[in-house]
Amino acid sequence: MTKVTMTVNGKAVSGEVEGRTLLSAFLREGLGMTGTHIGCDTSQCGACVVHVDGKAVKSCTMFALDAAGSSVKTIEGMANADGSLGVIQQAFQDHHGLQCGFCTPGMVMSSAALLAENPKPTEAEVRHYLEGNICRCTGYHNIVKAVLAASGQDVSSVAAE
Amino acid sequence: MHNFDFVKPSSIAEAVKALSNEGAQALSGGQTLTPTMKQRLAAPSVLVSLTGIAEMKGVCLGDDGLSIGAATPHAVVAAEAAKHYPALAALAGGIGDPAVRNRGTIGGSLANNDPAACYPAAVLGSGATVVTNKRKIAADDYFQGMFTTALEEGEIITGVTFPVPEKAAYVKFNQPASRFALTGVFVAKFKGGVRVAVTGASNNGVFRWSEGESALSSNFSGAAVAGLKVDAAEMIGDLHGTPEYRAHLVKVLTKRAVDAAR
Ligand SMILES: Cc1cc2nc3c(=O)[nH]c(=O)nc-3n(C[C@H](O)[C@H](O)[C@H](O)COP(=O)(O)OP(=O)(O)OC[C@H]3O[C@@H](n4cnc5c(N)ncnc54)[C@H](O)[C@@H]3O)c2cc1C
Ligand code: FES
Ligand code: FES
Fold first, then answer.
1. Which of A62, A68, A129 sits opposite B103 (nearest CB)?
2. Is B48 close to ligand 1, i.e. is its CB under 6 Å away?
3. Which pTM value belongs to this model?
4. Per the CB 3.0–4.6 Å rule, which of A124, B45, B124, B130 could disulfide with B197?
């Protein structure tokens, strides 16, 4: 076992990990932060997306030790300081951007990465950016609508409620 | 996944030393190797992460062309190569999805040499040079068939140098489930002639379509390849497409790449 230290949602954390411990496992099992979901565990679905030093990555495909010293942000860090839902989370709720909610943590983290790079994306840009996030429930329309709404754009004319 | 020791050196020299250990393997973005290890198709005893080596990262235009550090993620190439070599940047920006592009690297892609990967087409199509800790390898010598390269045991790619063509484009026909190329064609027009590299199509991995190259070298237009026929004998056949389908795609995508070249 090796000691690993990183910053998660602004707080310094550390724990004992093996070489093979994935970042997703360190977050979920090491830190008890189960908001980051494991869908496929094969780098395909995007449920496990977190930010490492500001970049969206699949935490099931990164070793915890490779993230040593990094600043990690997870879905647990997306709420406002008072515990209310953050802008993107609230938009997902308002626009029914989730059904079972399994894909939602990854969707929210990828959407946050998109909006950081491109604050006013078009519908096509949202769909393109979310290519690596699979949802088996919603049919995507309301996810796209939620992201557009979170970017402050008028979505009253966007179809599919 | 079997357990292993994880090391993260900060220089090429340290990485080469760590890789001389029995059972050691390089780890770059991990987008291919991690899933492979989960399936127990690889079980290194020491994993040597290359992502902490500053001298293996970055995009830089020099006298012999555009040099890209092997540990540079696809997303960085997409952003930083755009003004120097737009076709290469666009190829990098079309690999997988944003999270894959933030971790996956050019060196990892070339070392792996997946027969459906994008970068091999750019490297072969540009006549680039693969630079390792030991030597420089011309693209024409580097790719040796599916998942096979000129790399020796323990040798690491440190960077790639691309001569910048007058015009180029990469057109990929997506395999929508994997987001790899069902077939992809990279066309590059240099002063001395045209190179056409095809990925995703052949059982022998990335290859140059020499008939297309000679036709385009005398007339750089889509019409120049219209009358040619690509042999389906060596093409991949699977549930996504027959060998004939892929052979046809080679021609169609070459034409599209010529039309899109800038
Ligand atoms: C969902 C998904 C979609 C994808 N879509 C595409 C696509 O459309 N097109 C495409 O081209 N690729 C695609 N990929 C593959 C992706 O580009 C990988 O990042 C790439 O193939 C491997 O790079 P890596 O840095 O992740 O390498 P790793 O997985 O870390 O390593 C791969 C292999 O190369 C070796 N290696 C790594 N770096 C070096 C080096 N510098 N020198 C010597 N050996 C080295 C490793 O030991 C290992 O054997 C996709 C991957 C995923 C998960
Ligand atoms: S759980 Fe990581 S991509 Fe599916
Ligand atoms: S809401 Fe169920 S998978 Fe997306």
1. A62
2. no
3. 0.96
4. B124
